[in-house]
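User: Please fill in residues for this 93-position structure.
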């Protein structure tokens, strides 16, 4: 069995090495809904996450204003408007 890779070998980065970013604005009900899903999935998988306020960041505002809430996974846009829990889990698995 020398040289064989175990079936449980990890592919891709470890959960703690990932980062989910939720780009949102105050008073946005879709943003609140998205945050509930992001918090749950990240807690379940051990993935850190952060929240960014689009009203305090001109670059984020210019890039994502018409799409909020926006979820980024490792800095790349994953989704916008509505967050699908299963899809986010698969992206982080």
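Assistant: Residues filled in for all 93 positions:
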């Amino acid at each position: 069995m020398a040289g064989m890779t175990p079936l449980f070998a990890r592919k891709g980065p470890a959960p703690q090495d990932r980062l989910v970013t939720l780009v949102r604005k105050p008073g946005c009900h879709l943003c609140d809904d998205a945050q509930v899903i992001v918090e749950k999935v990240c807690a379940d998988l051990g993935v850190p996450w952060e929240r960014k306020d689009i009203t305090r960041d001109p670059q984020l505002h210019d890039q994502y204003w018409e799409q909020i809430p926006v979820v980024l996974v490792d800095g790349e846009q994953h989704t916008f408007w509505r967050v699908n829990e299963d899809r986010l889990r698969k992206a982080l698995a």
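For context: The domain at 15-92 is CATH 3.40.30.10 (Glutaredoxin).
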